[in-house]
Every structure is written in C-alpha cells, then in structure tokens.
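Notes from hallway chat w/ T.B., transcribed later so I don't forget. T.B. wanted the structure written out for a chain they're using in a teaching module, and asked if we could keep both sequence and structure tokens in one place. Agreed to drop them here.
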Amino acid sequence: MNWVRLNEQVRSDCEELLARFQQTDSVRFDVFSKIWKEMKFGQIFYGTVGREKRAFSQLVLDVAVGYFMPPFSFQIRVGGLYLIYSLYHCQTASPRVGISVALKDWDDVLSLEKDALGSRHLDAVYVLRQLLSCKAFRFTAMPTSLKFKKSRKAEGSRLRDKFVARARAPQELLDRDAMEELANVHDLYHKLKLSVCAESSEGKRSGMDLIRPNIVQKLRGCVLTFNDWQSNNQLEADDNNEEGGGGGGGDVDGGQGTSLRTESSQRARLLSSIKSRAYGQATESCKSRRHRQVELDVGDRAGPASPKKAAKVSLKARTQENLCTVAALKKEAPTVTRIHRLVTLERCKFQGKQEENNSMTTGLE
C-alpha cells in the first residue's frame, strides 16, 4: 500500500470537507454533520482489512488532528475537532486507535476550550469533553512519529491559506476589559494632574498639555480602521483570485497570508543574490587538475603561451646526481694502507733481532 499517496488523498478529502464547512460561517455540529453525511465521509475506512485497519486509522487521525491545532482560524479548529470526533467513532479498527496529541500542544487545546466557553459554543465544548471522557487522546512527546529514513517533504505546504487565521493582534490587545482598564487609568492620571498643577491658568494649561484627551476613543478608532482595512484587503484578494481562475491553491488571505508570502519572497531573493555572488567567484579545483587551471589563466592574461617546463628528471638521474657512485669513491678515496706490509716489516725486524742475539751468543761461547 502506497502510504504517501494515501496521505495526500486523505488530506485532500479533509480540506474539501473543511472548506465546505467554512463556507457556512457556522460552528454548529449539526451543520458539520450535514456536510459529513452529504460527502459520505464515514466510508473512508471501507476497504481496509486485517492489519491495515489500525495503520490506516492512525494515518487518517494524524492528518485530521493537524487542523485541530494552530495556526488555523477558530472555525477551522472547531471543524477539525468535529472531524477527529467523527473519525474516531467511525473507525473500523478494534480496539480503537487513539488520537495522538503532543504534550506541548495541549495548552492550545485548553485555550480553544476557553474561547468556546467564552463565545457560548457549547456544542464544541461538549464534543471535546466527550473525547476526554472516553480517553480518546493519546499523549505523545512529538506531534508526529519519528521514523528512520522518513521523507522530509513539508506537509504544511499543502494547507490552504484560507484556513489560517487572520492577524488579530491589535484586536486581541485592545479588548473590552483592556479598554475599560485603560480608561480608568487615564481618568486617574487626569485627576492627579489637576491636583498637582498650579492654580494659575498658565501653569494649569502648560501641565495639561501633556495629557492627550480622548485617548481611549482614538485607540478604538485606530483598531476599527485597521479591521476595516484588513477586511477590504481580503475582499480585494478574493476578487483577484476569482478573476484569475481561483484554482490551484491561489487563495490568498488578506492578513497573514499576504505578509508571510511577501516575507518569504524577500528571503528567497536575498538567498538567491547571496548564492549568485558566491558562485560567481572562481572555485578551487582539485589537486590533480590545479596546475592545468593555472596554466590556462596565465595564458589568457599574458597573451602568448608561456614556454613549457623542462621535463621531469627521472629517479635514476636524480640518484646519480645526489649520491656518490662506487667509481667516484674509488677516485676520491685516499691511498689505502696495506696492513699485510706492516706485518711483514715487523716480522723482518723481529727476525733481525733474533739473528743478532744468536750471533752474540755464539761469540760468547
């Protein structure tokens, strides 16, 4: 079974289901259930037998749980929650395969539950707590299983940009509680300035010039202006996609998607310029061909070709040149002292002394 191809097909089916759910602008479970039944998504487990049941169920749940985590929008994450809930109860493996969730991602799950409670989306909270009650989650150390020689192809590149949540940092920073707190601090600061300022109108006016009046309303207006600009930008991007055909993953989110793509394109241009400068310089050739490179460069720069180098001296010639031969030693060596001649002279002297002694002894007699 080709698991890579199955992974792509399952991912495509999940994205189609979530795209239809996103078009409804709803987070109700009954709306999701209607789309699930129309697509007959429960039949995804049909056709697997034997040991393939557990392996295929694990693959489907691993793909579906990715839409349950950031950076997707709240609606897509809720749709991912409904998706893993439905897939978990529709799988044909026995016992059921657990939903793998990394420990570092559990805080995101709790934050989703908190947001659902704050927005009164009780059906999402009920589905999540049902999964917790039946112990459907299987906590792991890593989001995906680590395998030897696993393909390094990025799975996030196939995700649709429309599923990603828009940048809402200003809206989250200036929520209702923060605005009320800021207004209270501003009023308190205003009263303190009034109490400290001098009684004269001139000193009072100079001291009050440091306070910006209606700062809370101005900040709220800036946030609303940013929100309107973000919405208009998204509408323009959608219109451009519709005019261009709207296929092949050309959907662009007016907030985070555009900024991320611009940043990635700038980074790509920077890397390409660095590589072009690096590869434009002369590369160092290998040791066996380095002398050829030097000869070619000198010939091109100096004009006429330089004379060839002398032939390399053979080992025999170098040996004869550096080492003394036996004949040279015979010529340069000093006269050899003959040891046997010294022995002959000593013997003659000894014989002469012996003859003198014999003659003296005979004369005495």
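Follow-up for T.B.: Confidence is low (pLDDT under 50) at residues 245-259, 282-305. Might be a good example for the class.
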